[in-house]
Design goal:
- This protein is mainly beta.
- The protein has one domain: Porin (Beta Barrel).
- Helices cover 11% and strands 47% of the residues.
- It has 2 helices and 8 strands, in the order H-E-E-E-E-E-H-E-E-E.
- It has an 8-stranded antiparallel barrel with strand order 1-2-3-4-5-6-7-8.
- A hairpin with a 4-residue loop joins strand 6 and strand 7.
- The protein is globular and about 55 Å long.
- The N terminus is likely disordered.
- One of its GO terms (molecular function) is hydrolase activity.
- Keywords: Hydrolase, Signal.
- InterPro entries: Lipid-A_deacylase-rel (IPR018550).
Amino acid sequence: MKKLLAVVAGCAVLASGAAFADPIEELRAGVYAQDCCGFGSDKEQGVAFNGEAVFSSPRFLSVLGAPRPVIGATIATDSDATSQAYAGLDWTIDIASRWFVSGGVGAAIHNGETDRYDPAVDMARASNTVFYGCRVLFRLAGDVGYRLTDRLSASFHWNHISNAGLCSDNEGLDQMGLRLGLSL
């Protein structure tokens, strides 16, 4: 329960910054495989549920290609798995009449392990504990999607969080799954 409260508090902090952004353009929700398929550690099990709000791109971001600000949270279902709240920027490119790809960068705050790995103390839990090193991490994300209607889309999503080598340990976490988007 403490882990869940920490993630909710982190999400509230991130959301307060987005309150000054333009209106919400899209809401997204999905289900992910926890800690799989990428550069992470593959130590955690279970699934995670994701919710995300996508805002209109503010005018000053046009110099960066008009990315849209996003805030979101991913809640892991396994009690020992990592949940996260995040904020960032998302670029979407149409590649065919209804197909699109998107990529995003940002920061995430998580409820996982930040202590430095100590072989003398942590050997018993080394196979199922991700050692992140920092509480706040970099986040990369990507989607390949299809617009089912003018307002509803479905996408295959991947995201990765890690500290990019800035802290003592850097195992990272990858999640992959499906999500739906609803344009408002």
